[in-house]
């Protein structure tokens, strides 16, 4: 089965701006996964039937080490 992952710095963004697309892709047979830090909208997306993979995103600035950690988190998610 084909998988597709949505990555965002907030589950709120995915819920408000990508929910329709996520539902449509699921109806077409894709396994839809979303990667975002947990927030109040994470459970709403999980209740829709989407799998959540938590990630750490530093939204306050640019830090090479934190960005490298995020890169390797996403690399491992995509590889799996």
Notes on the protein architecture:
The protein is α/β, with parallel strands linked by helices and 80 residues long. Helices cover 48% and strands 16% of the residues. It has four helices and three strands, in the order E-H-H-E-H-E-H. Strands 1-2-3 form a three-stranded parallel beta sheet. The longest helix is centred in the C-terminal third of the chain and has 16 residues, at 64-79. The protein starts with a strand and ends with a helix.
Topology:
Elements: E1 3-7, H1 11-17, H2 19-27, E2 31-35, H3 42-47, E3 51-53, H4 64-79
Parallel strand pairs: 1-2, 2-3
Record keyword descriptors for this entry.
single chain, 80 residues, alpha/beta, 4 helices
How many strands?
Answer: 3
Order of helices and strands: EHHEHEH
**Helix share bin:** 40-55%
Number of DSSP helical runs: 4
Low-confidence stretches: none
Strand content: 15-25%
User: Main sheet?
Assistant: 3 strands, parallel
Estimated radius of gyration: 13 Å
Question: N- to C-terminal separation?
Answer: 13 Å
Structural class: alpha/beta
Task: Give the overall shape, derived from the CA principal axes.
Answer: globular
Mean pLDDT across residues: 94
Strand order of the largest sheet: 1-2-3
